[in-house]
Design goal:
Elements: H1 2-13, H2 16-64, H3 70-74, E1 76-84, E2 89-98, E3 111-118, E4 126-128, E5 139-147, H4 151-156, E6 158-165, E7 173-181, E8 191-196, E9 203-204, E10 211-212, H5 216-225, E11 235-243, E12 248-257
Length: 274
């Protein structure tokens, strides 16, 4: 019995219960990292937000950048066309433009719209709207009318709609344009458009003096070569550069727009040959 008591005392000397109490006592210390868990959870949203914010900023920069894409650079134009067959007149209502390229030092523009009937270079083919000052989102709601338009004109002519910036010193600047083949317009039916503006680079005509603006002279040349039977098949933007070092002509194919559908699905598989 004395040995048993001694063993009990020795066992008590090992302080087994206290060690069991120390283990629970360590649990509060284990809870201490739990107090850091809210900090970790607080850090996670911050890190997630910090990871998500840069793409949002990039998207905003892309949306407001004027060098990202030609469409976003120049702006969009909303207008409508109506061919009054009975009165032989073409009505073009310029409604508004949105997000025009800033042309002035104040970041705004003084825009107006010019109309040209192509082919043709007479003053009767040219009309224009009033000028709106200090705005990139002008609202004209102005109708310009061509009189004496025949069914033949509607089949072979193209309407060029140009947006320009009026300069107080007299040097007006070109912003962008769009073109509509009048054969797409049905008689006595108004058609609405909302189109991104494009920039057409004037090209020098070989063997002649002066320059051709847009595609007007090119269309005249095609009409002469093919006997006047022409159909608009789209537009192509190219760049030309003569390299003196390489001794050759460098042709850049930039892009095509409004290509005619060649497949049954309404699309095409285009390539370019020189």
């Amino acid at each position: 019995m004395a040995r048993a008591a001694a063993r009990e005392e020795r066992a008590g000397g090992y302080a087994v219960p206290p060690t069991r109490e120390e283990r629970p006592a360590r649990q509060p210390s284990a809870i201490a990292p739990a107090s850091s868990i809210p900090q970790a959870s607080a850090i996670q949203p911050v890190s997630a937000a910090s990871q998500r914010q840069p793409p949002q900023e990039e998207e905003e920069e892309d949306a407001n950048s004027y060098d990202s894409d030609e469409g976003t650079t120049l702006g969009a134009l909303e207008f409508s066309l109506l061919y009054d067959q009975e009165n032989s007149s073409l009505h073009c209502t310029l409604i508004k433009a949105k997000g025009l390229k800033p042309m002035d030092s104040n970041g705004l523009a003084d825009p107006y719209v010019k109309l040209h009937l192509l082919p043709g270079a007479s003053k009767s083919n040219k009309l224009r709207t009033k000028t709106l000052r200090n705005t990139r989102n002008p609202v004209w709601n102005e109708t310009l009318v061509y009189h004496g338009i025949t069914d033949e004109d509607m089949q072979r002519k193209t309407l060029r709609i140009s947006v320009c910036d009026e300069d107080k010193f007299g040097h007006n600047e070109f912003i962008g344009e769009t073109r509509v083949s009048l054969k797409k317009i049905k008689a006595n039916q108004k058609k609405n458009f909302n189109i991104c503006l494009e920039r057409v680079i004037p090209m020098k005509r070989t063997g002649t003096t002066g320059s051709s603006r847009g595609m007007a002279l090119y269309e005249e040349e095609v009409r002469v070569d093919r006997g006047g039977d022409i159909e608009e098949r789209g537009k192509i933007l190219v760049s030309l550069m003569y390299s003196t070092q390489q001794g050759g002509l460098i042709v850049g194919i930039v892009r095509c727009v409004h290509l005619a559908a060649m497949d049954a699905n309404g699309y095409s598989d285009p390539f370019v040959k020189l």
